[in-house]
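To assess whether the prediction recovers the assembly geometry, we first specified each molecular entity separately, as shown.
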Amino acid sequence: MKDIKAKILSNKKIGSAYYKIAIDAPYIARSARPGQFVQIKCSNSLEPFLRRPFSIHRINGNMEILYETVGKGTEILSRKKEGDFVDILGPLGNGFSLPETSNLEPRAIIIAGGVGAAPLVYLTEELTKKKIKTIVLIGAKTKGLILCEKDFKKAAHEVYVSTDDGTYGSHGFVSKLFHKILKITESRFNTVVYVCGPQGMLKCIAEICQERNFECQVSLEEKMACGIGACLGCVVKTRSGNKLACKDGPVFNANELIWP
Amino acid sequence: MAVLGINIGKIKLNNPVMAASGTFGYAQEFEKLVNLKNIGAIITKTITLNPKAGNPMPRICETAGGMLNAIGLQNEGADNFIKEKMPYLSKIGSPIIVSISGNNIDEFFILARRLDKIKGISGLELNISCPNIKSRGLVAQDNKATYEVVKAVKKITAKTVITKLSPNVTNIVEIAKAAQDAGSDAVSLVNTFLGMAIDIDTRRPKLGNITGGLSGPCIKPIALRMTYEVSRNINIPVIGIGGIMNSNDAIEFILAGATAIQVGTANFIEPGVCGKIVKGIEDYLRKHKVEKVEDIIGALNDKK
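The predicted structure of the complete assembly is given in tokenized form:
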């Protein structure tokens, strides 16, 4: 990990409150793995005070972050222009682990809830590169909040979409879509499920995976101060005690977690 | 003595910049981001006799010009610290000061006795002022209690003892004097200020513990004033802490009377900040044609 000053190459609005920023950070592009994140200092002033953590969305020579403007830090980041510099600390965190070799053919089911899609594009691209069959389920409240469908369609073998209100794709929660997919796909695979999204959704998907004995890797989000495992501000409750979302995570095995 | 060298008790520091307890983990977390050998001294996260799980989440909250924390002294306990953390710490090459906290005098005594035997430890910092533990008041809010804890620790160890003071008191000079009378080699001030924040949508406190400790640039004016007052009223070295983000801030504390300073919350914003502050102090001395940093300790001209 390094703390580097990196140039912004582009910062585009891609939805109602979503932006995609491309940053020239070759060190991070070289060393990052899917599921890792960076801590960005969004301004040179005291406002906002702390850095903000962002999952790495894609690596294509440059590093791309997909983010939602939810508060001070992200608002300020959204106003930055091509040519501006930002301090970036990373890559941080443990990242996703790929399916282990076994007798069965590996298969990855990737489930994205809302802006949880952000870290999963990089993961999907890497899994497909490694010739692992990838099935992506994208879920959101409504059509306008479905993210990265094009990116997933380019990277994955199969993509399915659902919206809670039925304005796009299947009607219903993405967990319902998950059940549907499992009914129509074969069980000759060693299935690993990767999921990122709102907590209610994570818990639901984790329960389905436990019923089916699928390995389930969950990417969590917590407020962070240091991001490097020093301050102990981002703990997650697990069966083996308190773990740090920034260092032991942000990816956790679902059956390790103690859900609130 | 080198240009930046200073002494705290028996410890010879190469420069007056120390990494504050609770903000630097056990140093290894920062090894890729800062040259650890270059830091004047490193103070570990506070350890307690027995493991502590810490407070419920959320444990941190950003504020204007700072942050609140209510970590709750999460640590694996003294034995685990000695076995798992000391090997790395003792190889760094910078003086290691271990922060300790106890629920009562006996625990401070036992901790000090256990750590006194460890060669790689240069000193102890007594955390008598952590505001996040559920107990009736703090040792640091009572000059008699402060005196008793320092006395007990000094009885069992010859290592340098630094007493870390809480600012949540009416008269911090009085507490500093009690620590001095009990034989403390130095005092460090300030620990965090008791504060809180509220989420107006959920109508809940933003911290799981409800209250927490405020740190960062927003506390600097108060911390600086307290450093000034304490250093004018005691003879042992004062270590200044509170919102130091750069070398200018550090020099303010030294001019006010601090022999050394600690950098805390700034490490979260810029992990390499300790190294930058050392260099900045060097540059200031050169620019002002000052031979050594000792020459500007308390050099504030405060005639009205």
